[in-house]
Design brief:
The complex is a heterodimer of chains A (281) and B (256).
Chain A lengths: L3 H11 L4 H13 L1 H54 E3 L5 E3 L1 H19 L18 H11 L16 H11 L3 H12 L7 H14 L3 H9 L6 H17 L3 H13 L6 H10 L5
Chain B lengths: L1 H14 L10 H4 L4 H10 L1 H14 L3 H9 L4 H20 L7 H22 L8 H4 L4 H8 L6 H4 L6 H20 L3 H11 L4 H8 L4 H25 L5 H7 L6
Classes of the chains: A mainly alpha (281), B mainly alpha (256).
């Protein structure tokens, strides 16, 4: 609870004392130095809080401003940089715009924008060669020029115990497809036959030789993809079979694939056949 | 004042009910005019805080425009000048000094503070004080405000000397003594007294400091003032060197 004397002092300083009470208080002040001393202490205490309030206010504003300044400064420094780049001070203190720099940056900006919109405008992609096709009239010529029976001479004489398979191979190598084909068919019906892909290739070659390209294609299609090299061979003979049938579109498609694949042993021949048709589609 | 009343009524038309611009809806608070801002600062409490924040945001560009570009200060120095100027503007308004245009006034104050900083940087002048260790850390802007108190202010009345240099020295010592007394108070109690002086009423103080009733808030303010008086008395009794002027004035046995 506030002391009554102190409450009077506070009221006096707040100027809330009634006029009579104020006059009485001032008379008391004049007569009582201790009261005057207490009043001075109250006054200086108020001034102290006033100073503290000023100090705190400034501190608060400064701290808030510092946070704001951290981000604002980035923008302002950017503006400073732009001004230093694009404005030139004249001798009379006025600014003048550096139009050349501005035009340069504008041009760069336009180029960048264009590049962003369409990068091919500046760095066009190398055009992929269009697939070539063989004209229908060249199909037979191409077949006759490039068809050779698959050579199996290097595989003959192996220590294979399967005599039927050895007999078929020997007959195939001796150009006796009529004898070889029934054996090959018989072998292909066996589930434990190990040389299925090679046998299919031999069968296809024989059928092609016997002018049965449709059946030959069927045989080549059955060659398994896992037998990588034989599969590439099958592709080549399939293309030739299509040529034999004068189905040039299918043949061209496969030949283009072979020509683009350097691992295929017939890449050069495929390119040569495709070049027979020149650049025509 | 007529202008303020006019703006109050104008704002009331838009706001609907309250005469206090602080109570206006947010979209109206975005466009507060000078009269409204002055009114809010004089009102104290939360409206004053808001007005100060508004002024700080609105005139923040002065840091670059005046401090950095005109006076070639660093951004930090210019910001310091701006914060000082805002504090001084708030103080002027609170002391009912006539302010016609807040923007112009703030511009002038920022410029003046900037000049002070430049001068200080150029001369590195340090006033030789009787007890430099105790009071050189007082900020310039506070000393500057002190110089501008009217002659009737308590901090001017106790300087009974005509010598300008001596007056300044005494002012600095008194300020240092006052802050010494304040430093001895618990920060929360000090904040309570500051909030009261800033214009918060007891209801707001109750909420701000978590008192149970307004009466408790009132009691805590009285006790706070009492403890500050005791702290100043204690400094005098201990014979603190920077407090010698203040203590001599307080203990005078002359008439008021």
């Amino acid at each position: 609870m506030e002391h009554p004397q102190q409450a009077r002092i506070e009221q006096y300083l707040d100027r809330t004392l009634p006029p009579e009470a104020r006059a009485a208080f001032e008379a008391e002040l004049a007569a009582n130095p201790d009261l005057a001393q207490e009043l001075r202490l109250h006054e200086i205490t108020r001034a102290a809080v006033e100073m503290q309030a000023l100090h705190d206010r400034r501190d608060q504003l400064y701290r808030r401003g510092r946070q704001k300044l951290r981000w604002q400064k980035i923008w302002w420094k950017t503006l400073d940089f732009l001004e230093s780049a694009f404005l030139k001070k004249r001798a009379d203190g006025s600014d003048h715009i550096r139009w050349s720099a501005l035009a340069g940056v504008g041009l760069a900006a336009v180029l960048l924008l264009l590049f962003w919109v369409n990068p091919n405008l500046f760095f066009p992609e190398p055009s992929t060669p269009k697939p070539r096709a063989i004209p229908k009239e060249q199909a037979a010529v191409a077949f006759n020029t490039y068809f050779k029976r698959m050579d199996i001479s290097s595989t003959l004489g192996s220590s294979d115990a399967d005599t039927l398979w050895q007999a078929a191979c020997r007959q195939y190598d001796a150009l006796d497809c009529a004898q070889a084909l029934p054996k090959i068919d018989h072998l292909l019906q066996r589930s434990d036959f190990d040389y299925r892909s090679r046998a299919l290739l031999m069968k296809g070659s024989c059928l092609l030789e016997q002018n049965q390209p449709g059946d030959a294609i069927q045989a080549f299609k059955e060659v398994r993809q896992e037998a990588a090299q034989l599969y590439q061979e099958a592709k080549w003979y399939t293309a030739l079979a299509f040529l034999k049938q004068e189905r040039v579109e299918e043949a061209s498609k496969i030949l283009n694939e072979i020509a683009a694949n350097p691992r295929n042993p017939h890449t050069g021949e495929a390119k040569a056949i495709l070049e027979m048709g020149g650049n025509s589609q | 004042m007529a202008k303020i009343r006019e703006s109050q009524s104008f704002a009331c038309i838009f706001a609907g009910t309250s005469a206090n611009p602080y109570d206006h809806p947010p979209f109206l608070r975005l466009f507060m005019n000078d009269d409204q801002l002055i009114l809010m600062i004089r009102q104290g409490g939360p409206p004053r805080e808001r007005a100060n924040r508004y002024l700080q945001d609105k005139y923040f560009y002065l840091i670059r425009q005046v401090g950095v570009r005109k006076q070639h200060l660093s951004y930090e120095e210019a910001h310091m000048a701006f914060a000082d100027a805002l504090t001084k503007l708030d103080w002027k308004i609170r002391n009912n000094e006539p302010v016609d245009d807040l923007g112009k006034m703030l511009y002038t104050l920022v410029h003046h503070r900037g000049v002070d900083i430049i001068r200080k940087l150029a001369t590195k002048e340090i006033d030789p004080l009787d007890n430099p260790g105790k009071n050189t850390d007082l900020p310039d802007w506070l000393v500057d405000i002190l110089q501008n108190f009217d002659s009737d202010h308590i901090l001017n009345r106790l300087l009974d000397t005509d010598d300008e240099h001596e007056r300044k020295q005494r002012q600095l010592r008194i300020l240092a003594c006052i802050f010494k007394g304040l430093d001895q108070m618990p920060p929360k109690r000090r904040a309570l007294l500051v909030n009261k002086l800033d214009g918060y009423d007891y209801e707001e103080l109750k909420q701000l400091h978590g008192f149970k009733t307004e009466r408790v808030a009132h009691e805590m303010v009285s006790r706070g003032m009492e403890s500050l008086r005791e702290a100043l008395k204690a400094l005098c009794q201990q014979g603190e060197p920077v407090c010698r002027d203040l203590c001599a004035w307080l203990s005078r046995k002359t008439q008021f």
